[in-house]
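Re: [ENG-882] Designed sequences occasionally contain unexpected residues at chain ends

Forwarding the minimal case from QA. Structure tokens:
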């Protein structure tokens, strides 16, 4: 378990643009909170515009299979909520399988591929 002091130190280092270490213990059923830097950078370096076709892989309920879903970017707007300017969930996507992906209308750039 990580101490509060270690968390504060990591946050301070991240805010100053310095490297910091993360130890991650994945648990079944939890969302992916740790994303490889190369994926984030690639997603942020794309020019996202309305009409861009994307695909996203989603784990099925039984966790035995991955399924690709396809959609179209409707807009790309940085967050205006508590994290102003954040790319978190900045892409609004109209999914072809909208009944399956009802809770994924807004996704982060690193979650999708062109």
């Amino acid at each position: 378990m990580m101490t509060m002091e270690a968390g504060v130190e990591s946050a301070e280092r991240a805010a100053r643009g310095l490297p910091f270490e993360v130890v991650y213990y994945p648990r079944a059923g939890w969302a992916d909170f740790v994303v490889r830097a190369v994926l984030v950078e690639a997603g942020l370096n794309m020019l996202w515009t309305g009409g861009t076709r994307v695909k996203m892989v989603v784990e099925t309920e039984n966790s035995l299979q991955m399924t690709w879903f396809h959609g179209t970017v409707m807009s790309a707007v940085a967050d205006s909520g508590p994290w102003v300017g954040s790319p978190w969930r900045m892409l609004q996507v109209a999914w072809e399988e909208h009944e399956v992906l009802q809770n994924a209308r807004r996704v982060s750039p690193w979650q999708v591929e062109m």
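QA comment: On inspection the terminal residues look reasonable. Strands lie at 53-59, 66-76, 91-95, 106-107. Proposing we downgrade this to a documentation issue.
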